[in-house]
Amino acid sequence: MSSCRTARAATRLASTALRPRPALLATRTSRLATPSSTRRHSTQQQTTLNTINQDEIDHFSRLSQHWWDETGEFALLHRMNPERVEYLRQKVAMDPHAEPEWTFADRSNDKRRDEARGSGRWLEGKRCLDVGCGGGLLAETLARLGGDVVAIDASAHNIAIARTHASCDPLLPFVDEHGAGPSTPASIPGRLEYRHTSAEALHAAGEKFDVVCSMEVLEHVDQPGEFLKCLGDMVKPGGHLAMSTISRTPLAQLLTITMAEDILRFVTPGTHHYHKYVRPEELRRFVAKEMGGHAVWEANEDASDIRVGEVGETRGIIYDPLGGRWRLWPGVEGTWAKGMGELCNYMYHAKKRA
Amino acid sequence: MRRIASTSRIFEPIVASSSRRIPRVAAALPTFNPVPSAAARRATSYARAYSTHSTAPPADLGPIPSISAENTYDIVIIGGGPAGLALASALVSHKTIRDTTRILLLEGGSLKPVREWDDQGPWSNRVSSLTAENIEWLESIDAWQGIALDRSRAVDDIIVWANPDTNATPMLHFPGSDRPLARMTENINTQRALLRRLERAPEGVVTVREGARVAEMRYGEGNGWVGLRIGDEWVRGSLVIGADGPNSPVRTFAKIDTFGHAYNAHGLVATLEHRPDPVWPNHTAFQRFLPTGPIAFLPLAEDASTMVWSTTPPLAAALKRLEPAALTMAINAGFTLPEQDLAIMQEALLAADLMNAPLSADGLKGILAALPDAQPTDAPLPPVITGVQPSSVASFPLRLTHADAYTAHRVALVGDAAHTTHPLAGQGLNAGLADARVLASTLDKARSVGSDVGGITALAPYPRERYLPNHAMLAAVDKLNTVFGARNPFMNWARGTGLEVINELGPLKAFFMANAGSSASRAPRTGAAREFGRAHASDPLPGVAAGLPAALADAAEAVQVARQVATAAGGVLAEGLRNALRRGADALEKK
Ligand SMILES: Cc1cc2nc3c(=O)[nH]c(=O)nc-3n(C[C@H](O)[C@H](O)[C@H](O)COP(=O)(O)OP(=O)(O)OC[C@H]3O[C@@H](n4cnc5c(N)ncnc54)[C@H](O)[C@@H]3O)c2cc1C
User: pLDDT exceeding 90 applies to what percent of chain B?
Assistant: First the structure.
């Protein structure tokens, strides 16, 4: 129990009142990538640290419950997480570029080698960045997979909640804000560190990562282009950039704004702005044009992909209400059928040349 | 009774307290009840203690002492019964689990008898029929190879009948194929094979601790883990799996309710001795439905079989007190006498038992001799029993229970902890093994994407896949028991017609068998092995035009038959009947 910090975190949380709005279709909120607002929070925190108000503690306990209550308002996000990580697994663990040389001698072992690559702690030894980590849903899974994870969020509350939650799991290789830890045995690889900072600040500090993730953030940032360049720059040669976001289509508007915000009120109205959504092809073209194109990024390994002027792969991710889970949408690159899956939520992946 | 109730007190879910915790915060954590006030806690404890005549004072719940990394596991399985051992074996057969997960299996009793079982010696009375599907699975996880095969008897045929009156013997016959329908296997045989499988697992993946009865369970701070107290020592896990049997302390801890009802019946089990039959090798299971419940004869060897006689608790008690020779006689009577005569015998047994003077073999012989001459029935009969192994005679109460949920935060239930059923279908353990199979692959998938194995989301596919099939099985078995137990002219006619219709119509029966949950019926088979023309309803009818005409004929026939069967049995429990009959095949296949 030495590492569990419910009490301390609650105290810290008592400083401000900002309730995250629930998510539908995996839309995380309160992840403003503007460092200025976050700095304001921390100073406020300093001054109000001692005024512990029981109502506020209750309030923030409820708040922390929202991120991690798997049956509550963030249930859809919890269900999306395994499928997002499965996408990462296909891209990072099963990366064809990292495949060992194929020889006739061991061709009979193909299946076993594939199994070995995609199983176990497949992020072991990989430095990962989660930009906009929220309560730490993705960051924890990356750390459990052996990753050396730095997770950042612009909201001090989110970071506090994420730290609290991770500190209560004795099997997570969690490192606290003073750099203490992990207290897990050496046999458990990985490292999980939360930082209250911005992608731009990390970038300015010259940090590099094998895997850079940013899930459901792009649609909230004011300058997506600058944001993307910043993320792309932090990917080490041979590393991966993976994102998820929402497309700018009438369907997405219907589902994520009209239904989720205005009618069902699952998400606080004003969370999403239709004009901020980015279409899959816009994303692929931006990386091709503005982020170095194929000189910097590998061509999509899908042999059926013959598109020019586009970099990386987009992949639809769709909620299946009958199965109670999200599913990655299949299909051949560049076809109408594959595009259908990308009309609302989708994943993006690109690999940097070694 | 006493043990159960007192555990339920100890297993109250309580968030671990700690000097550093602010109570209000813990109270606001999701899903779980807050810590009750000490006074309220004591009051409930006393109330329970009183009702169970336990004099133990309520345990004072101090903070959980700090638990070392060594004692911190990803998965803790409670229960070293067949379900718990099967789950552990299934888990280690998955690569990601093997590479990343530390598993602890806790058994309250000793596993020494299991480990040292030498497949000689007398037959155990805890025998289960394992379906072909489960055997295939046990093979695939590398466990079946540890089975003592000469102690696992193939069941090739199953014969089920009832004779409500002397001139009617509706009967169902499930003929064998080139693979056994099931194998009668002692639970200890299965357990030993599973334990050996675990011993072959790589070092450090599974720790088995026996004599480790879990006395207390509590959520750790922030609900990040579950602490388990064994004696004075605490261990913890991210996920606790209750494979701890029908009175599951884990289920109580997780506050998962159950529903169901007790069958007003006890199952009397015994090992039967008989002479080897030179013509008919002992590979046929028999089950006769009596008004008081089914009596089943299940082959173990050429000269031994096991019996499950489900009957009223007083009669079960009376039978249990009989001397072996008298019991032998009573069991033979149970398989052969007409129902009216059997009723007379049972009256006499009960009366004598009530006087505390159980009938002797001679006394029983006298009563049977005085019965009116029995008409020879055309029922197929099991071999005549020559004796009963006295130490094998036991009885257990029969219950239908189904947990409201199989999972809670950091908790999952498998096997009898999740469901218990009437043994007439022999599905109890088979359902438990299927649970283990599905839960293990669910956890493997969760692990390969880094999920918290104790999370509801990670566990969700398990109940999604298992809850409804288990529920359908429990309901069908329950209804079969009702339908076959009832004795009134209408039900007799309905039951008789229903069974005969099924029996006469090969294709329909094949359809039943194909849905019996045994992949034996789906396995490729030689034509000669089948009594009926087709292995599957979808196969073309032999000698009949294939293609569309055949398909149409099939469809018409199926509709016709379904209607006939439904009408025949109809009126009774309308909602589930067709389902029950379909599942009936499942049932009949076993006992
Ligand atoms: C006499 C008898 C005959 C049966 N005959 C048949 C049959 O013919 N066919 C059939 O299909 N089914 C039969 N059943 C049912 C079948 O045995 C069960 O379905 C099967 O045993 C279930 O296995 P399990 O592992 O779920 O539970 P169990 O076998 O009950 O195992 C539970 C284990 O958990 C352990 N445990 C419990 N509490 C704790 C604790 N607090 N700490 C540590 N360990 C604990 C117990 O010691 C036990 O070993 C029979 C049952 C009985 C009692």
Answer: 58
Assess whether the previous peptide bond of A182 is cis (omega < 30° from 0): yes
Q: Based on the domain organization, do B274 and B353 belong to the same domain?
A: yes
Angstrom CA distances, A145 to A88, A130, A154, B410, stand at 11, 14, 25, 19
Taking residues B255-272, what's their average pLDDT?
95
- A183 lies within 8 A of chain B by CB: yes
| Spatial contact of B239 and B76, defined as CB atoms under 8 Å apart | yes
CA-proximal residue: ligand 1, atom 33 (nearest): B79
* Strand segments (E) across B222-279: 226-230, 233-242, 258-274
- The verdict on B450 touching A (C-beta cutoff 8 Å) is yes
Q: Are B18 and B133 contained in the same domain?
A: no
CATH code for the domain in which residue B362 is found:
3.30.9
Q: Whole domain around residue A313: which residue ranges?
A: 41-247+279-351
Q: Which of residues 218-237 of B touch A (CB under 8 A)?
A: 220-225, 236
Q: What are the DSSP calls for B319-345, one per residue?
A: HHTS-HHHHHHHHHHHHHS-HHHHHHH
Q: Give tens-digit pLDDT for B467-512.
A: 999 998 898 888 888 877 777 666 666 666 666 655 554 444 544 4
- Written as six digits, the tokens of B234 are 């605490």
Number of separate domains in chain B: 4
**For residue B498, what pLDDT is reported?**
63
DSSP three-state, residue B42 = helix
Per the structure, the complete domain to which residue B50 belongs is given by 10-62
Torsions phi, psi of B185, nearest 5? -135, 130
Angstroms from B137 CA to nearest CA on chain A: 20
Is position A295 within any domain?
yes
Among B425, B456, B489, the domain-final residue is B489
Ranges assigned E (strand) in B67-156: 72-78, 103-107, 127-131, 152-155
Domain boundary among B396, B422, B445: B396
Tell whether A169 is covered by a domain: yes
Tens-digit pLDDT profile for residues B396-421 = 999 999 999 999 999 999 999 999 99
In-domain check, residue A253: no
For residue A164, list chain B residues with Cβ-Cβ distance below 8 A: 222
* Residue A262, in any domain of the structure: no
**Residue B161 bridge partners (DSSP):** B171, B288
Contact at 8 Å (CB) between A30 and A22?
A: no
The enclosing domain of A334 has a CATH number of 3.40.50.150
Q: Which atom from ligand 1 is nearest to the alpha carbon of B298?
A: 8
Residues of B in contact with A69 (CB under 8 A): 30-31
Distances, alpha carbon B491 to alpha carbons B159, B169, B503, B569, in Å:
20, 14, 18, 8
Residue of B nearest to A187 (CA): B100
